[in-house]
Amino acid sequence: MTDQELRDLVASLAEAQKKTELEQQETARQLRESNLETDRQLQETDRQLQETDRQLQETDRQLQETDRRLRELGRQIGGLGDKFGSFTEGLALPSMQKILTQRFNMDVIAPRLRSRRNGHSLEVDVLAYSHAPDGDAYVVEVKSHLREEALEQMRKILRELRDYFPEHRNRKLHGILATVDVTDDLRDRVLSEGIYLARIHDGQFELQVPEGFQPRSF
Fold first, then answer.
1. 72, 143, 157, 204: which sits with the fewest CB atoms below 10 Å from its CB?
2. What's the CA gap between 138 and 175, in Å, rounded?
């Protein structure tokens, strides 16, 4: 090998070494940047997890608050229903007293009667009857919104009233359902069973029965 060839070989090796060092430096730089990006992403992920946890805690707090408000609203609605029912009964009583005395010639009108028998009880909103021991009697049930269960309740009262009030065993019983609101279908079924229906009109309850209505005695 000549001196020139040796110098060329040394120069080539030096150039290769320099290139290798540059490549190593670039690789080290990229690794540093990659590590920095990984650290940044890990920090961002941790931040997002912390934010998600905070949001979950806030959502849980809001759900608990919503549940509390729903319970309070349910309590208020229940109380409002009780108050409205009492208001309706108070509004109905004067009107029904007038109807019972003037139309049906009842002598005694007794609101809120309750009787116990063998561990059970029966309560009626109004019981009206004449002085004659074998005269008619009328049971009035007052509902703000008339529903199917109210009709069944009236049937039950008319079936069992003589058991709880034996002093009226010889009377013919009639039913009157007084309500603020009722569907057309339920109204028709009440009347078809021979039970009177009273609806509110101009602040007073009035009997609303069609022409040809046949009241039933129980």
1. 72
2. 6
Query: Alpha-carbon distance 146 to 189, whole Å?
Result: 12
pLDDT in tens, 108-143: 999 889 999 988 999 999 999 999 888 999 999 988
* Beta-ladder partners of 139: 127, 175
CA distance 9 to 2: 11
Q: Burial code of 181-195, b = ≥16 C-beta within 10 A, e = fewer?
A: ebeeebbeebbeeeb
What domains lie within the chain, and their CATH numbers? Answer: 88-207 (3.40.1350.10)
Torsion (CA) 155, 101, 179, 199 in degrees, nearest 10: 120
